[in-house]
C-alpha cells in the first residue's frame, strides 16, 4: 500500500476486492488512518489537553447559540472586534471592510439619484469647473456654503451622508491637517494667542487665532474639494468613470492599468482574507505579536507576491491570446444627452455664483 | 448561433497559406521544461486535423495546460517543433503582426482560471476586448457582444464588474469573450471544472453545439463523462509527461487499465 494518494505512475497494488483493505469499507472504520488520528477527538486527548465534556452542547465556556450579544462583539478589553486585538483579526477586519466599501460604492453608484443619472463625462467636466472655483475662493463662509452645496448634492443623489463624511473627514485631517499644523503657531502666523504653549526670547508663543483661521480655511477648501471628488466617484460605476476619463483624453494604457489594478486588488484582497481566516481558524486563544506572528506575516506577504506574479503572467497570456499587442482598443462611450448639457450649465453657473459672492465680500 | 458559423478569419500571410493546410496543428517531438528544470512535456507527437473534436486527458500536473499554451503560441517548446496552419510557431513568428492577427483570430483559448481571463472593468468590455484588438469595427463588435451575451444567458451581467460574479458566471463570460472572436479553433482548459451541475450541463451542451458547427475543438479535462460526450478522439498524457495513447475516445474510456495507470481512474473506482 502506497497510501491514499500514491505518487508516480505505479498503480495502487491493493485490489478493490481484498477483504479488510483499508478504506474499501470492508475493514474496521478508519483502519488506514494513523493511530493518533484514528483515536478520535478530545475524548482521547493527549496529556495536557482538556477533555471534551461527556455530552451536551454548548460545552462550558461557550456562548449559547443565537445572535451574538453586544458584549460578545467586544474584545477582552472592551474594544470593538476589528478595531483592537491581534493583527490577524485587525487585518481580517480591514480587508473585509475594504471589500464591503467597494461593494457599497458600486451599490450607491446604481441608485436612482440625481448625479447617477448624469453622463460620467458631464460629471467629470462639472467637477473640474467646480474644483477650479473652490480653489479660487478666499472667504471661509463662502467655502462653507460650497461644502453645504456638495453635501446637499450627496443627499439628492441618495449617497449616505455619514458614509460620505467618514470618507472625507478621515482623509482630510490625515493628509491636510498634519501639513497645516505648523501654520497654527504664532511663530508662523502671527496674531492673538488662543493657547499659549511657551515663550521664545521673552515673547509668548502658542496657537494663534489667525493661524487657526488660516488652517481652517485650507482644511475646509480641501474638504470641499474631496467631497466633490468623492461624490463623483461614488455616484459613477467604476467602469463608466474609467470610460469617461478615456473619452476626456486619458491614455488607454493608463486606464487599463488602473482598471486592472482595481479589479485584481479585490481578488488579491480576497486571497489575503482567505489566508488569514485559515490561520485564525487554526489559532487557539488570543493571537500574540510575537516572532511566530511576524514570521507568518512575512510568509503571507511572500506567498501573496508569488501568487500575484503568477496571476500577472497568466493575465498577460490571456490578453495576448485575444490579440493584445501593446495597444488597447475599447468601445466608444454613448452620446451625452440634453440633461448632461443642463448639468454642465448648472455647474458653470454655480461656479460663477460662488466666485462672484466671494469677490463681493472683498 | 448564426453569428458563430465557421467563417474565414483575416487572411494569413502568403507563406502561411501556401500549404493546403492538411492539419490545424502538428507537433513533432515537443518538449517543454519550466525554468530548465521541471519537465512539463516530453516528446509529444500529435497532429490535429480541421474540424476534429479532441480531448486531452491526463491527471493533474501531467502537462495538459502547458500543451494548450504551446498550441496557442503563448509559450514555445524547448525541444521539437509546432506548426499551426502550416507555419511553425516560434518566438519570431509570434512577433510577425500579420501572422499574429490571422492566428489569434482563428484560435481561441478559454483558460482554466477565469479570473486571469477577466481583466476588463465590465463584462461588455471583456467580451469586446478580443474583437477590438483584432480590428473589428465597433458596430460589428457591439452586435457580436449582444449575441454572445444572449447565447450564454448572461445579458443581465453586461454592466457588471467581473469581481462581482460567481464562479459559473465568470466561466460563461470567459467563454463568451472567446466566442465573440468567432475562432475556428477552440482550446478549452478544464471547461467543466468547479461548475455546479446546471452550469456544467450548459457548458457541455454549448461545446457540443460548437463542435457540430465544424470548429476544431481541443479540450483538456479529466472529466471523463464530458470527454465521452464532446470528443471523438482522445490524447492521453501520462504522469511522466509523455503521450501514452492517441485513439478514439470510446476505446480510451473502455481501457480501464490505461485509465488507472495514468491516474484518471482510481483502482477502487467502480467505473
What structural keywords apply?
heterodimer; A: 362 residues; mainly alpha; two-stranded antiparallel sheet; 10 helices; B: 271 residues; alpha/beta; 4-stranded antiparallel beta sheet; disordered N terminus
Give an overview of the whole structure.
The complex is a heterodimer of chains A (362) and B (271). Chain A is extended. Chain A has helices at residues 35-38, 87-109, 120-136, 140-156, 161-180, 209-234, 238-247, 252-281, 291-321, 338-360, and strands spanning 193-200, 203-208. Helices cover 56% and strands 4% of the residues of chain A. A two-stranded antiparallel sheet of chain A has the order 1-2. In chain A, a hairpin with a 2-residue loop joins strand 1 (193-200) and strand 2 (203-208). The longest helix of chain A is centred in the C-terminal third of the chain and has 31 residues, at 291-321. Chain A is mainly alpha-helical. In chain A, helix 2 (87-109) crosses helix 8 and helix 4 (140-156) packs parallel to helix 6 (209-234). Chain A contains ten helices and two strands. By secondary structure, chain B is α/β, with parallel strands linked by helices. In chain B, 37% of the residues lie in helices and 22% in strands. Chain B contains eleven helices and ten strands. Chain B has helices spanning 14-17, 64-71, 97-106, 114-117, 123-133, 138-151, 167-179, 197-212, 224-230, 249-254, 256-261; strands at residues 25-34, 38-48, 53-57, 79-84, 87-88, 107-110, 185-189, 216-221, 233-237, 243-248. The model of chain B is unreliable at 1-20 (pLDDT under 50). The A-B interface holds A 8-9, 11-12, 14-16, 23-24, 103, 106, 237-239, 242-243, 259-260, 262-264, 266-267, 311, 314-315, 317-325, 328-332 and B 69, 72, 74, 97, 100-101, 104-105, 108-109, 111, 113, 115-122, 124-125, 128-130, 132-134, 138, 141-142, 159, 161-164, 177-178, 181, 238-240, 260-263, 266-268.
Amino acid at each position: 500500500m502506497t497510501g491514499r494518494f500514491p505518487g508516480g505512475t505505479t498503480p495502487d497494488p491493493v485490489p478493490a476486492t481484498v477483504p479488510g483493505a483499508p478504506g474499501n469499507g470492508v475493514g474496521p472504520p478508519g483502519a488506514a488512518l494513523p493511530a493518533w488520528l484514528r483515536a478520535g477527538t478530545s475524548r482521547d486527548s493527549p496529556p495536557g489537553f482538556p477533555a471534551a465534556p461527556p455530552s451536551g452542547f454548548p460545552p462550558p465556556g461557550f456562548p449559547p447559540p443565537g445572535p451574538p450579544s453586544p458584549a460578545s462583539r467586544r474584545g477582552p478589553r472592551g474594544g470593538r472586534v476589528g478595531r483592537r486585538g491581534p493583527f490577524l483579526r485587525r487585518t481580517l477586519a480591514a480587508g473585509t471592510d475594504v471589500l464591503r466599501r467597494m461593494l457599497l460604492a458600486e451599490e450607491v453608484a446604481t441608485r436612482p439619484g440625481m448625479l447617477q443619472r448624469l453622463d460620467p463625462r458631464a460629471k467629470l467636466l462639472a467637477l473640474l469647473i467646480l474644483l477650479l472655483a473652490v480653489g479660487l475662493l478666499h472667504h471661509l463662509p463662502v467655502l462653507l456654503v460650497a461644502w453645504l452645496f456638495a453635501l446637499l448634492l450627496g443627499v439628492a443623489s441618495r449617497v449616505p451622508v455619514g458614509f460620505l463624511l467618514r470618507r472625507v473627514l478621515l482623509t482630510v485631517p490625515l493628509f491636510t491637517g498634519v501639513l497645516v499644523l505648523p501654520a497654527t503657531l504664532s511663530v508662523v502666523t502671527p496674531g492673538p494667542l488662543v493657547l499659549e504653549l511657551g515663550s521664545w526670547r521673552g515673547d509668548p508663543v502658542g496657537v494663534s487665532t489667525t493661524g487657526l483661521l488660516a488652517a481652517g480655511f485650507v482644511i475646509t477648501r480641501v474638504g470641499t474639494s474631496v467631497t466633490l471628488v468623492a461624490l463623483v466617484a461614488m455616484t459613477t460605476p467604476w467602469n463608466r468613470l474609467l470610460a469617461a476619463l478615456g473619452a476626456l483624453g486619458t491614455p488607454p494604457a493608463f486606464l487599463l492599468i488602473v482598471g486592472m489594478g482595481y479589479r485584481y486588488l479585490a481578488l488579491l484582497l480576497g486571497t489575503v482574507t482567505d489566508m488569514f481566516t485559515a490561520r485564525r481558524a487554526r489559532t487557539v486563544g488570543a493571537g500574540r505579536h510575537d516572532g511566530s506572528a511576524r514570521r507568518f506575516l512575512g510568509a503571507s506577504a511572500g506567498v501573496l507576491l508569488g501568487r500575484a506574479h503568477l496571476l500577472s503572467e497568466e493575465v498577460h497570456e490571456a490578453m495576448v491570446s485575444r490579440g493584445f499587442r501593446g495597444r488597447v482598443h475599447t468601445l466608444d462611450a454613448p452620446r451625452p444627452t440634453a440633461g448632461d448639457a443642463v448639468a454642465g450649465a448648472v455647474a458653470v453657473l454655480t461656479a460663477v455664483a460662488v466666485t462672484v459672492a466671494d469677490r463681493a465680500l472683498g | 448561433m448564426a453569428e458563430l458559423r465557421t467563417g474565414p478569419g483575416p487572411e494569413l500571410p502568403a507563406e502561411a497559406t501556401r500549404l493546403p493546410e492538411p492539419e490545424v496543428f502538428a507537433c513533432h517531438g515537443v518538449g517543454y521544461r519550466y525554468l530548465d528544470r521541471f519537465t512539463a512535456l516530453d516528446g509529444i507527437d500529435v497532429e490535429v486535423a480541421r474540424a476534429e473534436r479532441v480531448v486531452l486527458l491526463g491527471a493533474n500536473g501531467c502537462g495538459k495546460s502547458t500543451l494548450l499554451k504551446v498550441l496557442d503560441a503563448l509559450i514555445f517548446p524547448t525541444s521539437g517543433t509546432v506548426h499551426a496552419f502550416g507555419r511553425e510557431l516560434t518566438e519570431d513568428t509570434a512577433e510577425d503582426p500579420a501572422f499574429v492577427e490571422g492566428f489569434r483570430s482563428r484560435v481561441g483559448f478559454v483558460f482554466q482560471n477565469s479570473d486571469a481571463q477577466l481583466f476588463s472593468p465590465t463584462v461588455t468590455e471583456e467580451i469586446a476586448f478580443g474583437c477590438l484588438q483584432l480590428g473589428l469595427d465597433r458596430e460589428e463588435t457591439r452586435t457580436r457582444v449582444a449575441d454572445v451575451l444572449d447565447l450564454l444567458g448572461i445579458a443581465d451581467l453586461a454592466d457588471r464588474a467581473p469581481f462581482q460574479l460567481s464562479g459559473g458566471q465568470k466561466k460563461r463570460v470567459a467563454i463568451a469573450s472567446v466566442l465573440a472572436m468567432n475562432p475556428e479553433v477552440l482550446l478549452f482548459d478544464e471547461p467543466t471544472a468547479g461548475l455546479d451541475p446546471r452550469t456544467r450541463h450548459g457548458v457541455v451542451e454549448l461545446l457540443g453545439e460548437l463542435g457540430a458547427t465544424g470548429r476544431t475543438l481541443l479540450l483538456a479535462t479529466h472529466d471523463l463523462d464530458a470527454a465521452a460526450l464532446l470528443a471523438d478522439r482522445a490524447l492521453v498524457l501520462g504522469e511522466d509527461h509523455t503521450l501514452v495513447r492517441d485513439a478514439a475516445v470510446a476505446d480510451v474510456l473502455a481501457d480501464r487499465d490505461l485509465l488507472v495507470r495514468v491516474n484518471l481512474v482510481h483502482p477502487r473506482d467502480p467505473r
